């Protein structure tokens, strides 16, 4: 099950490219962003982002995003 806050935070990280910038955009702490992404990954039993600057979605996530954009 996807949590709305986790999904919105994930979207902010993808859009902003950095955890710090996503935290600023969402008006939460960097730690809150990190915890939400970690909880989302654990819930999906996968790693969704490579923690580089900018962040890079993993292949399964990139594929899911591309499918979502087509639909």
Automatic annotation (TrEMBL):
Q: Where is the HTH lysR-type domain?
A: 6-42
Q: Which domain of life does this protein belong to?
A: Bacteria
Q: Which Pfam families match?
A: HTH_1 (PF00126)
InterPro entries according to UniProt: LysR_HTH_N, WH-like_DNA-bd_sf, WH_DNA-bd_sf
Q: What is this protein called?
A: LysR family transcriptional regulator
Query: Which organism was this protein described from?
Result: Paraburkholderia metrosideri
Its taxonomic path starts at: Bacteria, Pseudomonadati, Pseudomonadota, Betaproteobacteria, Burkholderiales
